[in-house]
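Homework help board

Subject: predicted structure for assignment chain

Our instructor gave us this sequence and asked us to write out the predicted structure in token form, then describe one feature. I got the tokens but I'm not sure how to describe them. Can anyone check?
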Amino acid sequence: MNIGIDIRPLMSPIRTGVGEYAYELLNAVFELDKENKYFLFYNSYSDVSKNIPKWDQENVHYTVTRWPNKVFNGFIRIAGVPKLDKIIKNNIDVFFSPNLNFTSLSKKTKFVITIHDLPFEIFPEFSSLRQRLWHKIINPKKQCQLADIILTPSENTKRDVADIYKINPDKIKVLYHGVKGHPELVSGSPEMLKQVQHDTKQKYNLPDKFILFLGTVESRKNVTGLIEAFEKSFSSLPVPYSLIIAGATGHDFKKIKQCAGASPLKDRIKFIGYVEPAEKPALYSMADLFVYPSFYEGFGFPVIEAMACGTPVITSNRSSLPEVANDAAYLINSNDTASIVRGIVKILTDQRVKENFKTQGIKQAQKFSWNQTARQWLEIIK
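My token output:
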């Protein structure tokens, strides 16, 4: 088969959720499959080649166009050209988009797309005006209607897509994301892990005892709710903890930063910005507790990543998060600060509870493998 893949999510130097998904999935697929031919497409007027992963297998090829993106996307939106499979010029059988983007294909080419979540439909207040306009122009409903198969990372997102866009559930396939293993396995040995932890701690000037949030720092993740819960739980904790907030900036970041700046514990709240993928395992494993009180997630990568690193997790009892975390995390009501406070105090004051969530989290994380995800993806593509 000739398989076209849209790798435009990999053009950015900062690789957040969708970029991580695209990279890890394709990396696992290319390790498994040496028979089908893959044609990776991206378009950028500026040179972004340094950001694009380099896969040098004989069956992996790149197609690059250098149109200004506004012009390129405008033609696709208004005229339905160019056809991406025609640009590749290799009789593409299937074209895969790992996320929503401006896409136009020939009728003979099968179209598979991943829809990660629909926060812009369910919680538009958590999206900027620019994000809402972009989704309106790109028309996700039409793309779902045109797709031959829609992939979602959870049953929850599958229900959202079927219900909101009136899509036949039979053409929606749940394909759970994978997760990297324990940081000791990633780094190679306990000694190397300690060195990576030491380097990461020095780089970000981290305290010895801290609660961690890692993800895009935006209103949908309920970071202000976490800050409030941290304030209210602080006096009940056995030692003076800090709150570390890691991740790229997102919608309403200024308001979140202002909330932290107005806190009586502002000196114990630290924003460290975007964290490189290679540093994440060390950061997770050094944290005493990982809290992810998001209002809505299609999957929730950081929850499983933290579990894989042996860190106890608190997360929300809504959207896909209970499905992904199962009973391996302490579930809270993200709309109720007192609920988050109870979780923080419970885990950080009861060693038995803390150890139980660490053990259960590691077991839960082992259910998610990129190798398994890649094998299921290949079966779907076939």
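Reply (TA_rk): Your tokens look well-formed. For the description, you could write something like this. The mean pLDDT is 95. That's the kind of observation they're looking for.
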